[in-house]
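Appendix B. Extra example for self-study. Work through it before the problem class; the solution is given directly after the inputs so you can check yourself.
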Amino acid sequence: MERERIIKAAATFISLLILTGFLKWVSSYGSPYIVQVLNTTAIYIILSTSYNLVNGVMGQFSLGPNAFMVIGAYTSALLTMTPNEKEITFIIEPIISPLDKIAIPFLPSLLIGGFVAVLFAFLIGFPVFRVRGDYLAIVTLGFGEIVRVFATNAISVTNGSLGLKGLKQYTNIWWSWGWAVFTVFCLVGIVGSSYGRAMKAIREDETAAQAMGINIFRYKMLAFIISAFFQGVGGGLLAHLLTTIDPKLFTFFFTFNLLIMIVAGGLGSMTGSIIGAVIFAWGSELLRWVEEPHRIGGIFIPGIPGMRMVIFSLILILIMIFFRKGITGRWEFSWDWVFSRIGWRREKAHV
Amino acid sequence: MEVLFQQLINGVSVGSLYALIAIGYTMVYGVIRLINFAHGDVMMVSTYIAFFALTGFSLLGSVIPHMSWYVSFPITIVLTSVLGFLIERIAYRPLRGAPRISALMTAIGVSFLLENLVLVIFGGRPKGFPTPDAFTGVFYIKGVALPSLSIWIFGITLTFLGATFYLVYRTKSGIGMRAISRDFETPQLMGVDVNRIISLTFIVGSALAAAGGIMWAMRYPQINPFMGIMPGIKAFTAAVLGGIGNVVGAAAGGLILGIIEISFVAIFPDFAGYRDAISFFILIFILLFRPSGIMGEELPE
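Solution. Structure tokens for the complete assembly:
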């Protein structure tokens, strides 16, 4: 048994090395466009796997990621901007003190962004999880709109609808993929632990889970705030990738994309969420085609803005009706599976 | 005193619109335990139908000339009901036996589809709504401005509410609806045609949303593909405030919400930008202190 564990750890290590080598190669030789899409892919992985923890593993329907992303993005951006940059940016109303003097490095700003998102997740999770879980969807949907109302109106903190511009592009391929790997390890660890099993029990039958002594409120809250943390971090990473944020950036549209990723990948499976995120990041680039003008056989077809969203919503509805399991169902990738595939693994006779 | 009456009139007229939309939420939730996210967007589509009925169906060239409001508004209500019926039939019915979260996700999908279809077909630029002359006058009573639209809104809301209460509490279909909301299985054994009742629920809810939508478009005369989101969330708040599943409660909740919102803006004019946030805080507040709402009874999970 001991040997098997070492082999698995070695296999994980080697795959991480391969990933590092691949990223190194792309960041040296790939075009800026490819690097940009790779960055987005990593951030999508962070967001989709953490979203999957609440929606897939625990079966509670949250629509909050965009709100937590906005919170994380603004928090970390406000913390990394230098006092000088803030003075230039806040032209309508000066920024409130003490924010005007603070400037901290990137990593702590991301962590603080995540924790502020956790704080808000706790505040809205508290009333919702005490009652019926049904309300989570509409409360988080409303929360997303409210965050936007505040981002637009609290000018002395957020600079209103002008947003924050000229952030330094701290996010590079190592930051984004480093966080993606860290997130996946954390979440896979949680799902495999007794916490994860309690969350799955809540998904399958809340009443039965409660009867088995699972504190439903506690686990729902735990999953919700863990997920909010990574969404806050993801928002911060995205802010420092795009270098400009404004209240209209992370609308509900973003949450909807995440929903498609986790549903298409396989609700409840982390492997599925990763696959969904990768397919979405590259697929939506390809789908830009439908919004561009074209000339097919002499017929001119003007670009149709919004067409991608029509296609996405149709995809979501069709998956829900005809293909509810998604690509992976609830299957998870594991080394055991790989070894048994290549006929390498002995039977678990002496367990 | 005048100011108070003025705000009360405004509050009641906004609240009536919330009430009309809230009933669709509460009825659907009562019957199939689904938060119909597409409801606000159904309202949005109804304003577009009304717009094209009033200005003439520009898509069809001049085949259908523009119509006066007493023709185009009933047409709007009928077409919107058909839309509600189709949504349930195509998107929700196949998921009747599926886990609840699947139906909720489909509802979000339908909501997004409606918004973006309208965006693709009619463009994202807001359109000015051509309010018919019959709704534009203003009366003055002792210094209090009483727009004729407010009177219309109040009258039409009362009429529709009366019809809905009659349907829910005095007809056989209404008994069926209330039976299903208590227990989904047993009424089927007793010969209630569940599919027909559910379709009827969606038709009635959408008709009310259309009535609300038309008047919304006349009150705030600009329509755009995303205008349904905020009224949708607020109407849902109204439904929870009144006790979800309770039709009378939804009407009362809508009125209360409208009055609170308007008075907030009147008392704190500097914070008018935060107006949309109020209903959200009210929702959180109810969930904390009275999750069953004002008139609600404890629903079994």
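Self-check: Residues 205 and 341 of chain A are 33 Å apart (CA to CA). If your reasoning did not lead you there, revisit section 3.
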